[in-house]
Amino acid sequence: MTTLKEVLAKKIEEHRKRTTKLLVEHGDVKISEVTIAQAIGGMRGVKSLVTDISYLDPYEGIRFRGYTIQEVMEKLPKPEGKDYPYVEGFLYLLLTGDIPTKEQALEVVEDMRKRSQVPQYVFDMLRALPRDSHPMAMFSAAIVSMQRESVFAKAYSEGKFNKYNSWEYMYEDVLNLLAKLPQIGAFIYRLKYKGDTQIDPDPNLDFGGNFARMMGIDPPYDEVARMYFILHSDHESGNVSAHTTHLVASALSDAYYSLAAGINGLAGPLHGLANQEVLAWIQKFMEKFGGGVPTEEQLKQAVWDTLNSGQVIPGYGHAVLRKTDPRYTAQREYCLKYLPDYPLFQLVSKLYDVVPDILKQHGKAKNPWPNVDAQSGVIQWYYGLTEYDFYTVLFGIGRALGVLSNITWDRALGYPIERPKSVTTDMLEEFAKQA
Ligand code: CMX
C-alpha cells in the first residue's frame, strides 16, 4: 500500500467517529434556514453540503485544507529548480489534509505514472467524433467511455462492496482516472488543432511537466500547468461542477460517471466556459481597436455596450465571493513576473481598473470584482495556446483533482443519496400568505 493510501485510511477511521457523533448527538441542530428567494434563486447561501477539501470565504477566497493559495504554493514540495509544486503532492494534501514530504509526493508521482496508460479505444473513439465537436464534449465522452475500467462498479456488481470498504474502490478509480487526464487533454488538443500529431508522455516527468510536453509547449509552460491545475482544483462544494460530481456519486455511480457529469456542468458559460468567453470578448475589443490596447474611455464604452445589450461581463462577479478572487491575483502575479509588457495582459489590467466601478454603477452584480477566469486565458494565449475553445478542458483537468478527492471522502463517510425536497408554486404562495 502507498503512504498516501495508508495515511488516508487512518484519517478516514478517525474522521468517521466525528461524523457519527455529529449525527447521533447533534443531528437536530439547525445550521441554515431557507427563504422563498433562496428556493427560487438557486439555493444561494443555503448551508446544506459538507466538504473538508476546501472552504470558500466570501472575503478571503479559497483555502485548500485550511491553506491559502500562497501557503499551498510555498509549502508543497516542488520539482528541482521549479517555483510551482507537484500536482501529485497537492492531491496528497487534498485527500489527507497533510502537506507531504518530497518523498511522499514522489511516491504519488510514481504511482500515477503506473496508472497513466490511456486505453487505445479512447483515442479511437475521439478520432471517430466529428472534428468540430467542442473539446469539452470530447473530454466528457473520453471520461465516460472508460467507465468499463471502474473497479468500484465491478466490486459492486460482484457483491464485494460494503459501506466500510467502498472508499477503497473509489480511491482506485480516482487515481486511475486522474493519472490519464493530462494525456487525454493533450490528445484532444493536438487532434483538433495540430493535425493529430501526438507527442508521447515522458515517464520521468510529473503531471504538470508531462502535460506541457504532450501539448508541445516548451518550459516554463510546465510551471503554468502546475499552477493552473492547482488553482482550478476546488472551490468548495456548491459550485456546479463540484456539486454535480457529488450528486451523481451519491447514487453510487462510479468516478467515471460522476466526473463526466461534473465536466458537463463545467462546460456552461456561467461556470468554466467563462474563461473562453473572456478571451472571445477581449479579442473582439482588440479587433475593433485595430489590435492595439484601447484607451480607458473606449474600454468603458465597450463594457457599457456589453451590459446594455443584456450580456454579462465574463470573468467578473461570483455567486459566493465578494472581493477579487485570489486565483485571479495568483495568475496576475505570474503575468507580472513573466509577461508584464504583453498587450493582452495590459488590456486585462486596464479592465480591472474600469469594470468594477461600472458594475457598481450598473447596480446588479453583487460582486463587481474579477474571478479566476478574467486572467487565465491571457497566460495561455501568451504561450501560443490561442484556441480558446480548449481552455475549459484545462480547467476540467484541474477541477477533477478536487471533485474526485471529495467523492472519495463521500464514500468513506457513507454519505447517502442526495435528495432535497421540492415544493410547488402554490405551496410557496401559501407559505407567503401565512408569513
Ligand atoms: N456582468 C453583468 N451582470 C452580472 C455579472 C456580470 N459579470 N455578474 C452578475 N450579474 C448580474 C446577474 O446576471 C444578475 O442579473 P439579473 O438579476 O438580471 O438576473 C444580477 O447581477 C445578480 O447576480 P449575482 O447574484 O451577483 O450573481 P449570481 O450568483 O447569480 O451569478 C455568476 C454568479 C458568476 C454566474 C455571474 O456573476 C456571472 O454571470 N458572471 C460572468 C460569468 C463568469 O465570469 N463566470 C465564471 C464564474 C467563475 C467560476 O466558475 O468559478
What features would you describe in this structure?
With 435 residues, this protein is mainly alpha-helical. The protein has a domain at 274-382: Cytochrome p450-Terp, domain 2, CATH 1.10.230.10. It is built from 20 helices and 2 strands. The protein has helices at 3-26, 36-40, 69-75, 87-96, 102-114, 120-128, 135-145, 151-157, 166-193, 207-215, 221-231, 240-250, 255-266, 274-288, 296-308, 326-338, 343-362, 373-382, 391-412, 425-434, and strands spanning 54-57, 61-64. Strands 1-2 form a two-stranded antiparallel sheet. Strand 1 (54-57) and strand 2 form a beta hairpin. The longest helix has 28 residues, at 166-193. The chain starts with a helix and ends with a helix. The structure holds carboxymethyldethia coenzyme *A. Carboxymethyldethia coenzyme *A binds at residues 235, 239, 270-272, 274, 307, 312-319, 364-367, 371-373. Keywords: Transferase. It is an enzyme of class 2 (transferase). Pathway: Carbohydrate metabolism; tricarboxylic acid cycle. Belongs to the citrate synthase family. It holds the Pfam family Citrate_synt.
Features:
435 residues, mainly alpha, 60% helix, binds carboxymethyldethia coenzyme *A
Give the structural class: mainly alpha
Number of strands: 2
Percent strand equals under 5%
State the share of residues found in helices, binned by percent: 55-70%
Q: Name the CATH class of the domain at 274-382.
A: Mainly Alpha
Strand order of the largest sheet: 1-2
Rg is: 22 Å
Mean pLDDT across all amino acids: 96
How does the overall form come out from the CA principal axes?
globular
SSE arrangement, N to C: HHEEHHHHHHHHHHHHHHHHHH
End-to-end Cα distance = 58 Å
Keywords: Transferase
EC number: 2.3.3.16
Organism: Tepidibacillus fermentans
Family: Belongs to the citrate synthase family.
